[in-house]
């Protein structure tokens, strides 16, 4: 989390007193609230949950008659991944506020959305995906750690910030193909000791699962037998989009 939490809370209280509260997405006014969510409820309620049915392992929505191929190459220890919403324009805006514009408190709203997923197993420990040192210095905080801390507070779960670490810096994944993402992240994480019990990885966006698969492999190398993961959003997959656009009708 960002440093000096007491100073930040005090500054936030002064800000709320001096400046009317405004949603960062739609810019409409919001009534004063001790939680100061930064994103109004109507905007958050427009985020689109993933539909059923979904792959039991990777959480990808399935189309009738099409088997999931997204998770076939995942390490066996990565047992299940769930994402709260699609990365549609509204959710993408929220993620960009968190990651690139310094609004780390947006993570509280995103974590509250993640909280609506299935209840965690007893003894769960949240493990945020670590950032590389260079990106961490540039950004000032790790957005996955912000999400994990907020989610841990909401669910009463511990957070392990040092269960795994980055072994090396990786290039940005934004423009990479799935194969390039896997190559870019191969061996990027390593454990720092014995893994926590029932680790659940926390990240902001699921695109291909390469990051979560590598992080799970690192925890498995330290002795974890089953690793789960949650993310706020899931990028739209071309196959899912194309299939969803097909008109419904009797099968041939």
Task: Give a structural overview.
- This protein has 9 helices and 6 strands; from the N terminus they run ααβααβααβαββαβα.
- With 252 residues, it is an alpha/beta fold.
- The protein has one domain (48-244): 3-Layer(aba) Sandwich (Rossmann fold).
- Helix 4 crosses helix 6 (143-155).
List key phrases describing it.
252 residues; alpha/beta; Rossmann fold; 4-stranded parallel β-sheet; two-stranded antiparallel sheet; 9 helices; globular; disordered N terminus
Overall helicity: 25-40%
Shape: globular
Average pLDDT: 82
CATH architectural designation: 3-Layer(aba) Sandwich
> What's the domain count?
1
CATH-derived topology: Rossmann fold
Which series of helices and strands comes N to C? HHEHHEHHEHEEHEH
State the separation between the terminal residues, measured CA to CA. Answer: 55 Å
List the strand order in the largest sheet. 1-6-5-2
CATH hierarchy, class: Alpha Beta
Low-pLDDT runs: 1-5, 238-252
* Strand segment count: 6
Secondary-structure content class: alpha/beta
What's the arrangement of secondary structure elements?
Layout (H helix, E strand, L loop, with lengths): L4 H14 L22 H5 L32 E9 L2 H12 L5 H9 L10 E4 L4 H7 L3 H13 L8 E3 L11 H8 L3 E3 L7 E8 L3 H12 L5 E8 L3 H7 L8
Parallel strand pairs: 1-6, 2-5, 5-6
Antiparallel strand pairs: 3-4
Helix pairs in contact: 4-6
Describe this structure in a few short sentences.
The chain has a single domain (48-244), classed as Rossmann fold. It is built from nine helices and six strands; from the N terminus they run ααβααβααβαββαβα. The protein has helices at 5-18, 41-45, 89-100, 106-114, 133-139, 143-155, 178-185, 210-221, 238-244; strands spanning 78-86, 125-128, 164-166, 189-191, 199-206, 227-234.
């Amino acid at each position: 989390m960002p440093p000096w939490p007491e100073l930040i809370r005090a500054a936030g209280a002064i800000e709320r007193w001096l400046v009317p509260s405004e949603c960062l997405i739609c810019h409409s006014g919001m009534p004063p609230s001790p939680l100061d969510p930064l994103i109004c409820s109507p905007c958050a309620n427009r985020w689109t949950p993933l539909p059923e049915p979904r792959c039991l392992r990777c959480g990808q929505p399935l189309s009738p008659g099409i088997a999931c191929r997204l998770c076939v190459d995942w390490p066996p220890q990565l047992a299940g991944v769930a994402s709260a919403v699609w990365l549609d324009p509204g959710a993408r805006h929220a993620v960009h506020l968190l990651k690139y514009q310094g609004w780390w408190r947006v993570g509280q709203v995103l974590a509250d959305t993640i909280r609506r997923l299935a209840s965690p197993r007893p003894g769960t420990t949240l493990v945020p995906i670590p950032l590389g040192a260079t990106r961490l210095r540039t950004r000032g905080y790790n957005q996955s750690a912000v999400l994990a801390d907020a989610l841990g507070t909401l669910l009463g779960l511990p957070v392990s910030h040092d269960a795994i670490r980055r072994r090396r810096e990786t290039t940005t994944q934004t423009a990479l193909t799935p194969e390039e993402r896997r190559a870019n992240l191969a061996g990027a994480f390593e454990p720092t000791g014995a893994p926590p019990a029932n680790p659940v990885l926390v990240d902001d966006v699921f695109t291909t699962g390469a990051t979560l698969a590598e992080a799970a492999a690192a925890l498995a190398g330290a002795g974890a037998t089953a690793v789960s993961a949650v993310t706020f959003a899931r990028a739209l997959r071309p196959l899912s989009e194309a299939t969803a656009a097909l008109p419904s009708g009797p099968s041939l």
